[in-house]
Amino acid sequence: MLRALLFIIHLFPVYLCGQVNLCPSNQHSNLFECHAETGRITLFSDDARLEWDEFVVGRGKELEIRGLNGEMFASRHFVRGRTEILGALRSSGPLEIYSPRGILVGTSGKVIAPSIMGTSFETMASGSMLRGSGWAGPIRIKGEMNASSGDVALIGNLITIPGYIEALNGKITMI
After folding, report:
1. pTM summary value
2. Cβ contact 157:138 at 8 Å
3. What phi and psi, each to the nearest 5 degrees, are found at residue 12?
4. How do residues 117-161 score in pLDDT, each as one tens digit?
């Protein structure tokens, strides 16, 4: 009974309230600005690192990430908890998601960016090197992933894709 109750409490903020944690936990950075009321994050630099306790875009919600003045800055997300995209996640620049507990793009979820990299390996990003313990949560793409001008790379222990992935001018790689 207690296990079932904890499961319901865990799901409550995501599915009943819609969107959880619209702004990263390090939202007071001078490298980006979060506008919770409009569902937009503006990046001021290619060095912006967005840290999340949980990264959840609720069903029917949209999060747009864009560079200041149309710049195509990379959008790098480091997530300690779960990553669930049940609505729309749009980035004007390359999108990177580091989420050791796994990545879920739900059936109504859409991820749209010039290029997309998602990994569930426990990582520490240092330039282009990834290091970690080797533990990785699942990556499940039930909705859509669209890379408009580059590649889609998914790196994880268990990757399932009953959904749709498209890389218009690139390739799709799963490791």
Report:
1. 0.79
2. yes
3. -50, -50
4. 999 887 544 333 445 555 678 999 999 999 999 999 999 889 999
